[in-house]
Amino acid sequence: MSSLGWKLIRNFEKDFIVDSEQVRIKFVTMSCVHKQLYQVYVPFQGRTVRFHIQKDTEGQFKIVGKGVCPPPYVPLEEEFAAAIEASPIG
Description:
This protein is mainly beta. Helix content is about 10%, strand content about 40%.
């Protein structure tokens, strides 16, 4: 909790199944006050790739620029959104 009484949005990591393998994915919030925009870091072809997930005008979290997101991760968009909604605050 902040000194102003707000519950702060936190970065978090979560495991997902990608191509039949368990993969740890890191979510880094771009706002400590609202769940609205995240940088997402995923392993892909021996390196770490970053893409963004943002809340759209309808309040749904969507991958921004799906051409930047590695193809195996695009189908996990709804799972990523659920993980963000369930992520810890405090």
